[in-house]
Amino acid sequence: MTTSLNHDASDDPAAALVSLEALPPDSLHEVEAVIGGDAESLLLYRDASGDVRAWLNVCPHAGRRLDWAPGKFLRAKDGMLVCAAHGASFELANGVCVAGPCRGESLRAVAVEVRDGGISLAQG
Question: What is the pLDDT of residues 21-56, one digit of tens each?
């Protein structure tokens, strides 16, 4: 499942980007957040155990978005994230590219934390 969830954390960086319950296990979601004063598209992944990871929604190969439409991500049969532009495959456990033009590179991680039932940018 993929979803685009809009959020503007510019007024309160500690505010939740999205509620944890809005991200079912083994799902990918896109949210907007302000990081370092810039609006960024983030890719959130909640694994089967409930842990949440986040990366900038940018392929390291050519700097293009990973989604084929806002919030719509491709998954391979083996569950990997696939870049819509060039077909690079990324492990969702760590964001490492394991196939395609950016093999060996990684998605740029963004620190997030689960707090009070929501997913927020990590503080500090």
Answer: 999 999 999 999 999 999 999 999 999 999 999 999
Is the pLDDT at 2 greater than 80, yes or no? no
| Residue 10 CA: distances (Å) to CA of 30, 34, 80 | 17, 6, 31
pTM (two decimals): 0.86
Question: Using CA atoms, how far apart are residues 95 and 34, in angstroms rounded to an integer?
Answer: 21
Number of H helices, E strands in the chain: 0, 11
The rounded distance, in Å, linking the Cα atoms of 103 and 96 is 8
- CB within 8 A of 94, min separation 6: which ones? 106
Cα angle 16, 19, 23; round to 5: 130
User: How many CB atoms are located within 10 Å of the residue 53 CB?
Assistant: 18
E strand or H helix that includes residue 46: strand 38-46
The H-or-E segment that residue 32 falls in is strand 27-35
